[in-house]
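Posting for a labmate who doesn't have an account.
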Amino acid sequence: MKRKYKMIDLCAGIGGIRKGFELTGRFQNVLSGEIDKYACLTYEHLYGEDPTGDITTESFKKRIEDTPYDVLLAGFPCQSFSRAGKQAGFLDSTRGTIFFDIADIAKRTNPKIMLLENVDNLLSHNKGDTFRTILNVLVKELGYKVIGVEESSDGKLLFNTKDFLRNSKNFGVPQNRPRVYIICFKRDYWTDRVDLLTEKLPTSSNKKLYESLHDVLEMGADLKFFLSSGYLETLEKHKNRHKEKGNGFGYQIVNSTDNPLPISNALLATGGSGKERNLVIDTLNETAGKMASSKKTPLNDRGVRAMTPREWGKLQGFINYAFVDKEGVDHFSFPKEVSNTQQYKQFGNAVTIPAIEVMANFIIDCIDILGGNQNEG
């Protein structure tokens, strides 16, 4: 029987990265850390474990130090780094950010492998200095081989930022969601065999969950998801104002009939804008003139609505995929305390599980190249 690698799930959200790794059958979670109260409720509901823990605190770092593990997983937020003096080192310039705490944990506990996930803006953040600093910390100060990074003879790190960017639309779901993935192997543990890992990160998946957004949408949604006529009119005015200025901002209907294979825009945790860029036409219910409890004006007569949280969950691989058992029963659900607003936020903050699953299988392939169990024991 092949060994299961122990992992810790930091900045855990509702456990999407964890689930992607668990789907491979080769990883076992031993500790989680998350500070958002409602995300913790959902996480415990799904996994039976309370992930509450602040990775910036000394007490939680001590918990990690006391927990034997192999793989560190973290979907950390993108934050500004300070400008440190040359003597301070790259790590010092990240102080006060979540990345600093992740790097500090890695320095204390020496995980054999790490996967870090972030928004695509990380690559251009602070004119690219933020990403360069992260790579310098990982390679030069923590001693990791980062997939996609080579070191020149004079010590300069050579990389192409595009090699870290992967899009959910290429991993089985119809969602345009570019994200940064950083995969690292500890040089001291795996030895110089890590230099055999010259391969780039996977660019796509053979598994297709849906042909297009048409297969995701569940028509005839509850009236509460339909826009009021007044709100739709406001959105149209806003879009027209920007259009006159030559901007492409504004609401978007993503299932227009002129596109046979539509995909959604990226789902966002920021509420309104994430929904407004992903409106759909749903004419299965007659909405013209009807009122919904939370609306100040009657519903619009075009059938324009927001996608439902359930549809967002399908686009992220939580619903209709990751929690489906061998009998075909889907075990994903939210606890009753989690509102629709929180559900949108949690899915918008989450990773796309099928993309993470591919990255986890890539790590297993790398372990095989490195000799697998030769260093175990």
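Reply:
Got it, the structure tokens are right above this. The chain has a mean pLDDT of 92.
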